[in-house]
Design brief:
Strand content: 35-45%
Number of helices: 2
Largest sheet: 4 strands, antiparallel
Radius of gyration: 17 Å
CATH architecture: 2-Layer Sandwich
Structural class: alpha+beta
Helix content: 10-25%
Order of helices and strands: EHEEEEHE
Distance between the termini: 12 Å
């Protein structure tokens, strides 16, 4: 099992969610986050300068069985990309064990 964490643009969340459902990843957690990125310039809109050093993003946390890792990553990358600075990041870490609280199932069965 692996934990896939992704930080994406909030505007791409619906596209990513749909892409994940298309590869049969139907359960994940997410929350809004603010981070500091590499972009140093601000944007000017109607004469008002806006700082872009603090960026609003959405953070996704997904735990999948090993055979779903690459399809999950591909779904996120392909649906979140805009080819602009600030598209986000994907991180993959191992998960030693998982348990379903209701039934006590453990391992990959607990993810179904």
């Amino acid at each position: 099992m692996k934990k896939i964490e992704a930080i994406i643009r909030k505007s791409k969340f619906d596209d990513v969610k749909k892409a994940l459902h298309n590869v049969e990843v139907n359960f994940f957690s997410y929350w809004d986050v603010t981070g500091v990125g590499n972009e140093k310039e601000g944007h000017v809109y109607r004469g008002i300068s806006y700082s872009t050093s603090e960026i609003q993003r959405r953070f996704l946390s997904i735990v999948v069985n090993d055979d779903f890792v690459q399809p999950t990553i591909d779904a996120i990358i392909n649906s979140a990309a805009t080819d602009k600075v600030g598209d986000g990041k994907v991180f993959v870490t191992p998960v030693d064990e998982a348990y379903r609280i209701r039934t006590g199932e453990k391992g990959g069965k607990s993810l179904n």
